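Aim 2, interim progress. The first record below pairs a target sequence with its structure tokens.
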Amino acid sequence: MRIARSQNNPLFFAASSRKDLKAFPGEVQSEVGFALWDVQNGRTPHGAKPMKGFGGGVTVMELVADYHTDTYRAVYTAKFADAVFVLHCFQKKSKRGIATTQADVDLIAARLKEAARFYKQWKEQQDEPILKEGDK
């Protein structure tokens, strides 16, 4: 996981999601970046919508940005109290209308599970007392 800091909640990037976002056109990167900044600071960005297929109280959100004739998506979760995870960033290439491919859905589900494991470890580290030099 890679991390980007803000004034509030940290933003973690799962697997290649940061690299994938950086491959988007500059205007799309800016649009998605500002939207993620809103999420980090406790706001729901304009146009963010829940992604279908992730029930059980898990909120997986999708940001959609159109650029020329292409569509780009960034999928994130803010289900954790004090962290935001970008799970997947990709260019929409579905041959079946607006549907997200099953391969992308499966990848998002796997990264969501990994994010939950990572978050648990991260929180445990945050709660550990910091020892100063000379402490045992």
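The second target in this work package is listed in the same format:
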Amino acid sequence: MLLLSLPAASGDDCRLTPTGVECRIGGTTTSIAGGGDPGPALPLRYLRVRDGSCWYWSAHPPGIDSRNLAHDARIIRTIARLPECVWEVVTTSTTVPTSEVLVRAWEVFRAFPLTAPTVRLEPAGNGITGLPTFASARMPPGIRHSEALPDGTTLEVVATITEVVVLWGDGSPARTVAPGEFGPRPHGAAHHVYTLKTCTETYRRTHPSGPNCHPDLEEYTIRVEFVWEARYRRGDPWSDLGHIVITRHLPYDVDEAVGILH
């Protein structure tokens, strides 16, 4: 589960995938890369309750195993009823272990208000076969966090969108662009030409132009993935932390322009 700190609502879903964890909340999909045993890319697996007053994620048992779907309801109730614990390190050492710093960095990254910007399609509303459709968005600023650790050192975590991936919904290859290239017509790098229009089943079956329609789809679903990359440091050079993908799905109808002789 791992993303159940987000509010659960009817129709929301969280599931494991071969590459990590994916949750769909209110029509927006959030993915965390990772999978397999807990590791640097996915350290937060067990929900632990501290004295019945608060909860926190841990990479180590015991606790409520968030990968066991039978525990979903219990995790939701716990998160809804109790606040998240204020992080603290209990150690006899004067230095916070690197592994605990990594876990804390992931907790900070997961708490960032990561967003999927509003995507603009041109032409808006309906595409035209044979003409390029452009996708663009205004990128949000990067996010930075700094806090003092119990040993007096400082943890810094930063996150920025590093790439945008567009899947056009018609089976064509995905288009990956840098944030600065995800701009509007005519200079934006994320564009695509549709060859088949989308039609209702009745139109496909009865209209003379039915063969020009996609054989199955009444509209294309464009999937735009914003990849947030994070880095962290504790007085050392920056280290890569991992990435979280925030996704938008956009329904898109495509028509065709037909010339008429006078």
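Residues 98-111 form the longest helix (14 residues). This observation will shape the mutagenesis plan for the next reporting period.
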